[in-house]
Specification:
The complex is a heterodimer.
Chain A lengths: L3 H14 L25 H7 L8 H11 L12 H4 L46 H10 L9 H9 L2 H11 L5 H13 L7 H6 L8 H10 L6 H4 L13 E2 L10 H14 L2 H9 L9 H4 L8 E2 L21 H9 L19 H11 L8 H13 L9 H4 L34 H4 L1
Helix pairs in contact in A: 3-8, 5-8, 10-16, 15-16
Chain B lengths: L2 H23 L20 E5 L6 E8 L6 H18 L11 H6 L58 H22 L30 E3 L4 E3 L1 H10 L12 H12 L12
Antiparallel strand pairs in B: 1-2, 3-4
The chains are: A mainly alpha, B mainly alpha.
Chain lengths: ~425, ~270
């Protein structure tokens, strides 16, 4: 009976080949090691998310950053990636809905690039499988950067001498659309972010969080049920299950049910062409994941976003419809907005006002310390709006009205406090430096 | 909160408080203290080691009580203790395993691993290039996405659907717990031990811990025990440390490690 092979071999394999449980026999070619990862960034996720051969190299990252900031990639030289993903603002734009060329509004809120490399899929509806695929689409999207097609983009790039030189130096060939995407993705793969106050707390510094923030963490894993989709642990510290849920945000819009019915009917007839036409119609973008999978249970569902840096990446939800984290808590507190496709995990929570305050306080501890100043500003700004809360409905949230399933009982934290349990795992992620 | 609600909340709060007091003051069944293994004192003030059976003990000549054994000394001493016990209990159901020194000298057998996860193929022409005029979101080639090999499609309902990536994250999370347990199991300091004895000295690679037989009546404890009770007993006795709380991360990690060592063994609760 000798299983430590399980432990020891796996470890050996993890450490030597950078491949874990699903390891192939160590390849002859040593893969390049991940860069030193700060606490709160998982070596496992790095291994799972960074495809072989696409590890960021300094040259690719530098070119990628240049392209990320390049407005000439848009049809009228006004929009770059960073227009909606401003590095100073935590790689978002702070607007409810982003704006592309000619001040056109798109129908989605700009998600952060921070830790996007760890996402299983890209975009709110997960329609791109990799960062490379993702990087191309906004350039070609008529409402974002507005380029008609890849050839036009590359003609323009080849007309800029410095890029011809750069691409030659980095890829050893003429600029191509694929290489452009590889470079941008390499830059994005360096945008991992951990090192939040929360990480200090979970690695044993219990003074890193205040009593209210700790209570927020306990609620997060308990009464508020956040961890059913946003669970975080040492191996997967993203606070996201990377799945798609209908939480009833789209149902704010009056016609959602009619819209959904139309969409589902079209899919049932199996007419591919008509589905594509639906997808062109911007109001249908509220159907979310459904337009990608064409499965009825995906109607109105969107990807669970990471909660890392959530304090500085508002406004919230796929359509930016919620201005503050207090609004977000209110939305969940009443069990979302009822609609035929609401996720089964949504139910009213019965959170009291002090509990909501604690939860929001906790969420602000998930921001990378390099954004401390911005984080404080945002917290002040959001707190100032505490009295304008359109989503608030205490009667429903507390179970005085409506029937949205059972209220969870109030846990007695003196008996069992999830914050003490090491839910997050008492093992810290193996950092690259420790591996050596 | 309006006035009517306040009026309603106050009596409720008072009532629930009263209930809470009533509950708190009702007599609670207190668990009796566990039996203790009292070690005989040594005439020369030598260190005395106790075995987990609650009976066997031995003096370690040349080491004074309160001193800590080196790892080599501890391995020798525990091996002798185990030998005494084996002589006393020749018919005991015991798996013969090489001692810790031997066990650690031989490299573990290589495990066959499952095939590697499919890797994205970066050079492949993505099908998301054909953009048509129009709105936003799914219009950028969404219909072609399901055909992308690497699109992580979630089919079926949300909770039953999981991807290969999910499984790898789960496996690594479990492995991390097992690894931490392995560390604690082999480390007298981490166990809070005071004499330099660690679990692996009597249980190389977790041998003879038989986690699959719990819950069972544990004679030393005089009651039905769970695995964690027995871990604590061993921490108190041969290891000479303080028992760990149920929720202690070290306890949880050790349980993870001990169970991991018995993968595939039939569950037989209550077996001796």
């Amino acid at each position: 009976m000798r299983l430590p092979s399980g432990v020891v071999t796996v470890l050996a394999v993890v450490l030597n080949s950078g491949v874990g449980l699903a390891a192939s026999p160590p390849s002859r070619q040593a893969p390049s090691a991940p860069p030193p990862l700060p606490p709160g960034v998982s070596a496992t996720l790095w291994r799972l998310s960074v495809p072989k051969g696409l590890e960021p190299t300094p040259e690719r990252v530098a070119l990628g950053e240049k392209l990320f900031r390049e407005k000439r990639l848009s049809v009228d030289n006004t929009v770059a990636c960073m227009t909606c993903h401003e590095p100073e603002l935590g790689f978002t734009d702070g607007k409810p809905l982003s704006e592309g060329v000619k001040q056109q509004k798109v129908t989605r809120n700009s998600p952060t690039v921070l830790n996007a490399l760890f996402n299983a899929t890209q975009f709110w509806d997960g329609r791109a499988g990799t960062l490379e695929d993702q990087a191309k689409l906004p350039i070609l999207n008529p409402r974002e950067m507005g380029m008609p097609d890849a050839d036009t983009v590359m003609k323009k790039v080849r007309g800029i001498p410095e890029y011809v030189t750069d691409f030659q130096a980095v890829f050893g060939r003429e600029p191509t659309f694929d290489d452009l995407a590889v470079a941008i993705a390499a830059f994005e793969r360096m945008q991992f972010s951990g090192d939040a106050r929360f990480d200090r707390f979970i690695m044993g510094d219990s003074k890193a969080l205040t009593a209210s923030e700790k209570n927020g963490w306990a609620l997060f894993n308990g009464k508020a049920r956040c961890n059913s989709c946003h669970a975080g642990n040492a191996v997967s510290p993203l606070f996201s299950d990377q799945k798609f849920h209908n939480i009833g945000v789209a149902a704010h819009k009056q016609d959602f049910v009619t819209l959904a019915r139309k969409g589902v009917q079209v899919v049932r007839t199996g007419d591919e062409k008509q589905i594509d036409e639906l997808a062109l119609n911007s109001e249908f973008s509220e159907l979310g994941r459904f337009l990608v999978t064409q499965q009825e249970n995906d109607v109105g569902s969107f990807k669970t976003p990471t909660l890392r840096n959530v304090g500085i990446t508002g406004p919230y939800m796929h359509d930016g419809s919620l201005a503050t984290l207090w609004d977000v808590m209110d939305h969940y507190n009443k069990g979302g907005v009822a609609n035929p496709y609401l996720d089964g995990g949504m139910q009213r929570l019965g959170l009291t006002e002090p509990e909501i305050d604690d939860l929001v306080a906790f969420l602000f501890t998930l921001t990378d310390t390099k954004f401390d100043k911005l984080n404080k500003e945002q917290l002040t700004k959001q707190r100032a709006r505490k009295n304008t809360r359109p989503e608030r409905d205490t009667a429903i949230a507390m179970g005085k009205k409506g029937n949205l399933g059972d209220l969870a009982p109030n846990p007695d934290l003196s008996v069992k406090n999830p914050a003490d349990l090491g839910i997050y795992g008492d093992v810290t992620p193996v950092t690259a430096t420790k591996q050596r | 909160m309006n006035l009517r609600m306040k009026l309603l909340v106050v009596p409720c709060a008072a009532l629930s408080f009263a209930g809470g007091v009533a509950l708190a003051t009702s007599p609670e069944a207190k668990p009796e203290p566990l039996p203790r293994h009292v070690l005989p004192a040594s005439k020369d003030g030598n260190l005395v080691l106790g075995l987990c059976d609650g009976e066997t003990s031995m003096e370690v000549p040349g080491v004074k009580d309160g001193q800590r054994l080196t790892r080599a000394q501890a391995i020798t001493a525990t091996a002798q203790l185990m030998d005494d016990w084996r002589k006393k209990n020749p018919d005991a159901n015991w798996d013969d395993v090489p001692g810790p020194v031997l066990a650690q000298a031989t490299p573990p057998a290589a495990k066959k691993s499952p095939p590697p996860a499919p890797q994205p193929n970066p050079g492949a022409k993505s099908s998301g290039n054909d953009v048509r005029q129009g709105g936003v979101g799914a219009q950028t080639g969404a219909s072609a996405v399901p055909q992308q090999q690497k699109a992580n499609l979630q089919t079926g309902h949300t909770y039953g659907a999981y991807s290969e990536r999910d499984e790898q994250v789960w496996a690594d999370s479990v492995q991390a717990a097992v690894k931490e347990g392995h560390r604690v199991f082999h480390d007298a300091e981490a166990l809070g031990g005071t004499v330099g004895v660690s679990c692996d000295m009597c249980h190389p690679d977790g041998a003879n811990t038989h986690p699959e037989t719990y819950p069972k009546y544990q004679v030393q404890l005089g009651r039905v025990a769970l695995l964690r009770d027995m871990i604590n007993w061993c921490i108190e006795n041969p290891v000479r440390g303080k028992p760990l709380a149920d929720g202690d991360p070290k306890m949880r990690a050790m349980e993870a490690y001990i169970y991991a060592q018995r993968k595939g063994v039939k569950l037989e609760y209550g077996k001796h």
